[in-house]
């Protein structure tokens, strides 16, 4: 793709993300996106075919894929449970601060009103958390009762539910502190008896 | 109020709850509620003034108030953390099974689209959980690092987020099992060291 076409696609995607994150999908029109990006409506249809196409592109750009997390996930110099905790903060911060991630999360919540299948990251997160917990178990850093696959699924649901619901109830500014409180109520259950409070990776 | 008027109010409320729970607020009209209850649209306006009035009444009837939980909350023959866990199962079961509770929860989620302030139960739940955790602390049944008010707020957000998000992702039938998994990842963190697995109140 030519540089100019790439720049146009990007500016449409970012304008759409900003509007979807603020107003939601239904309240955002192709005209709003064209006005917000300084491009024509024709450019929206040329590059993304439809408002649905643009919604799928926004979700795929960040929320569903998280390419920026690969390096942290694979960093074997950090113990696996610490990596899991650090990943959760990376995600929570993006959900609070990054407009394209926020837009993806909001679009996924509104998926019933969007006439296109939207991808999501939860299966990927659960697989990653399962591997990290399995590594912790091999290293003797996991309570024996904790089964990695089952715990991973529950942690992903509780984590994402906590972030979404805390934001809805108390505002985005409270999410990171609430996440710290949650890890303090969860980590001792993951660690072997006698090591519950060992080397807390919770910042602050 | 006369018995006949009471019966009419109740049948309107239940028909509305069924429709709100299934289709959501925006997709349910006063005519649908009238048809679903076998009453006239005039009866809706006479008893509830508007669709908004009916939405508030549905939310207040169960979701925001939970009168059925008072007895279990106050049952001092049961240790406080066991009461907290039992209350969470009562709530989760109602959120899965009871149409009026489900309708209230869905309406609260859709509150941005409803032109009336909707009450919610979260401050009440947090206050109740704080008291139970404080009682557990007094009885020496709480890990010393756990601060009741802070933990209560986090547990309420994680619990409700978990239930909502598990249902959205994996369906209502998985909620109770996921809640058991969550308590197994949370209770050891609440209990004093050496008592993490004491007398698990998680059913099944």
TrEMBL record, chains A, B:
<dbReference type="InterPro" id="IPR036271">
    <property type="entry name" value="Tet_transcr_reg_TetR-rel_C_sf"/>
</dbReference>
<dbReference type="Pfam" id="PF21935">
    <property type="entry name" value="TetR_C_45"/>
</dbReference>
<keyword id="KW-0805">Transcription regulation</keyword>
<dbReference type="InterPro" id="IPR050109">
    <property type="entry name" value="HTH-type_TetR-like_transc_reg"/>
</dbReference>
<dbReference type="InterPro" id="IPR054126">
    <property type="entry name" value="CprB_TetR_C"/>
</dbReference>
<dbReference type="InterPro" id="IPR047923">
    <property type="entry name" value="ArpA-like"/>
</dbReference>
<feature type="domain" description="HTH tetR-type">
    <location>
        <begin position="6"/>
        <end position="66"/>
    </location>
</feature>
<feature type="DNA-binding region" description="H-T-H motif">
    <location>
        <begin position="29"/>
        <end position="48"/>
    </location>
</feature>
<protein>
    <submittedName>
        <fullName>TetR family transcriptional regulator</fullName>
    </submittedName>
</protein>
<dbReference type="Pfam" id="PF00440">
    <property type="entry name" value="TetR_N"/>
</dbReference>
<dbReference type="InterPro" id="IPR001647">
    <property type="entry name" value="HTH_TetR"/>
</dbReference>
<keyword id="KW-0804">Transcription</keyword>
<keyword id="KW-0238">DNA-binding</keyword>
<dbReference type="InterPro" id="IPR009057">
    <property type="entry name" value="Homeodomain-like_sf"/>
</dbReference>
<dbReference type="GO" id="GO:0003700">
    <property type="term" value="F:DNA-binding transcription factor activity"/>
</dbReference>
<dbReference type="GO" id="GO:0000976">
    <property type="term" value="F:transcription cis-regulatory region binding"/>
</dbReference>
């Amino acid at each position: 793709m030519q540089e100019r076409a790439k720049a146009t696609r990007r500016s449409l995607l970012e304008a759409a993300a900003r509007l979807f994150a603020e107003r939601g999908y239904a309240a955002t029109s192709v005209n709003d996106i064209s006005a917000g990006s300084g491009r024509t409506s024709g450019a929206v249809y040329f590059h993304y075919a439809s408002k649905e196409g643009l919604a799928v592109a926004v979700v795929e750009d960040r929320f569903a894929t998280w390419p920026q997390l690969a390096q942290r996930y694979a960093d074997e110099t950090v113990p696996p449970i610490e990596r899991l905790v650090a990943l959760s903060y990376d995600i929570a911060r993006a959900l609070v601060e990054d407009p394209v991630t926020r837009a993806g999360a909001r679009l996924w919540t509104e998926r019933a009103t969007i006439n296109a299948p939207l991808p999501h990251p939860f299966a990927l997160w659960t697989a990653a958390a399962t591997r990290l917990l399995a590594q912790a178990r091999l290293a003797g850093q996991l309570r024996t009762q904790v089964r990695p696959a089952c715990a991973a699924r529950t942690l992903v649901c509780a984590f994402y539910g906590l972030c979404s619901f805390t934001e809805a109830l108390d505002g985005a500014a409270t999410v990171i502190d609430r996440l710290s409180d949650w890890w303090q109520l969860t980590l001792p259950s993951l660690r072997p008896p006698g090591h519950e409070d060992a080397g807390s990776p919770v910042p602050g």
